[in-house]
Amino acid sequence: MKRSSSPASVSRRRFLKAGVLTSSAALTPYYPSVAQTGISSKTDRPVVGAIGMGGRAGGITRHAREFADFTAVCDVDSNRANGSLGLTEGKGTSYGDYRKLLDRSDIEAVIIATPDHWHTKISIDAMRAGKDVYCEKPLTLTIDEGKKICQVVKETGRVFQVGTQQRSECGLNFLTAIAIIRAGRIGRIRRVEVNLHKGPGGGPFQTSPAPTHLDWDKWLGQAPRVDYIAERCHGQFRWWYEYSGGMLTDWGAHHVDIAHWGMGMDNTSPTRIDAKGTLPTIENGYNTATEFEIQCACPNDAEMIIRSTAGESVGVLFEGEKGRLFVNRGRVSGKPVEQLSENPLPEDAIKKIYGPRQPGNHMRNFFDCVRSRDQPISDVFSHHRALTTCHLANISLRLGRKLKWDPVAETIVGDAEANSWLSRPQRAGYQIEA
After folding, report:
1. pTM above threshold 0.85
2. Residue 43, pLDDT score
3. Which of 259, 261, 262, 362 is nearest to 306 (CA)?
4. What's the per-residue H, E or C state across 103-118?
5. At what angle do helices 116-128 and 143-156 cross, to 10 degrees?
6. Among 35, 3, 45, residue whose Cα is nearest residue 363
7. In angstroms, rounded to a whole number, what is the distance separating the alpha carbons of residues 110 and 114?
8. Nearest CA to 326 among 181, 166, 182?
9. How many other C-beta atoms are found inside a 10 Å radius of the C-beta of residue 97?
């Protein structure tokens, strides 16, 4: 994900001064041996394997090399797998089946950067193999997958960091915004606008034989078997509902997460969702929403609006009883920010949110927690709740009706058809076992 090149409006120094990831046609369920569980690092540099060596893997593994040593890489595209061996300084091994990587007793943690529809299965198998996990966002394809991941994290006690880097990086804009809100500077939140990019359209695209270096069946995984289309695959998978959720989960995983964080919704979700928008209907073309507006009723009589837009307005606007606050990757602004010079926040305001370690590097936070066994800043439980909002928005949009959600039971009330959308059919051999 590209980040804004604009400088952060509030640096850490200024804030503190002012007070402020796989040849068989299918994969059988993976169960580790006892010897592969309960791993703990013997050194300050854990041994790591990387699964899914596409575009996002470059950035996150580069950061990880500061804190860990790579010994194995894996991708169903052998060109990508073999081309990533530099991460291991020529001493590691490349795999086309992630289960072989998980069989390695020396590997203590994995970094997963596969297409979204593979995240949950690999993550669960990794945790059951005794590995800690760093997985890119959006973490899940469905709400049911999120519930399963949360269940396995609790059962295994593994450390799990989701790649929603806005909780650590992108300057300190987001942490500053949350600190201001926590301090009560905008009062009780009444309304939040989450502005996301518009989704792309495209197609029809041509089918062709899959490249010989790509195991197409394995790439498809749990998703329906279809002919190869280049635009379904590397980099563009996120605009196909079979593999992802479009812009609503791609950027929504970031900005809806911040909205949830600011509204104190890390452990809950909206109770009503009403989505409208435009869904492409071109055969063999992108099929996720290009434009959308979603109204969400939230706890404490607050409202969340998620809409597609463009330009500098992409970000999150919090409206409270005492003021308004806007934040994105380029700036944090509003009267409460302007007032920091004369009405500073306590110097420990960010520390209270982030914890005892210095913010600024999301991967460092993960490896710190691998050693300490603390909860990372972007835990699976809060991410599941934010992504539940995004998934519900997609369900409402695709069904064309309002939904009533029970955030405690995690079910759609009085709508059996809509509830069937909380999970998806999975191809035989690729089912997710929890």
Report:
1. yes
2. 58
3. 259
4. CCCCCCEEEECCCHHH
5. 20
6. 45
7. 12
8. 181
9. 16
